[in-house]
Amino acid sequence: MLTESGLDLDHVPPDPSREDLRYEKRPGRGIMTGPSLVSVVWSAPKAPSRAQCEEALGAGLPAGHVFGHTAPGTAFCMWTNVDNVAFVRVSGPEGEEGVPVDIVVWPKQPA
Asked: From start to end residue, where is composition biased (Basic and acidic residues) (predicted)?
């Protein structure tokens, strides 16, 4: 569950933190990536591989993108703050506590 505490996706399980993924209930906000993180909408019904996410991120949205109040099924790829690749899909409607999300994080590739 993504709440107003946010999520740090570089920990297993993700820690409450606003480093990587953020959520605000107020109008015009909703789901947001961290202020220096690039993301890209994933519109295919099937979840991507790491390579597909990484390729899509090459043409990503500006850092700190605000996705807004999203519908179930909305999905995106993003870089985390330590260069891991993550795939996030909204798995249910927003509620009082936040928005349910399914998340896959692939570790940084060795250089």
From this structure: 8-27
What global pTM score does this model have? 0.94
CA distance 99 to 90: 7
Strand pairing class (75-79; 101-106): unpaired
**For 29-40, how does the pLDDT look when each residue is reduced to its tens digit (9 = 90+)?**
999 999 889 999
Residue in 25, 23, 80, 91 with CA at minimum distance from that of residue 57? 80
What's the rounded Cα separation, in Å, for the pair 58 and 15? 27
Q: Which domain, by its residues, includes 66?
A: 21-106
What is the C-alpha to C-alpha distance for residues 7 and 34, in angstroms, rounded to an integer? 10
Residue 9 lies in a domain: no
Closest to 10 in 3D by CA, of 97, 108, 111, 94:
108
The order of strands in the sheet holding 101-106 is 39-41, 75-79, 85-90, 101-106
Whether 74 is covered by a domain: the verdict is yes
Total of domains in the chain: 1
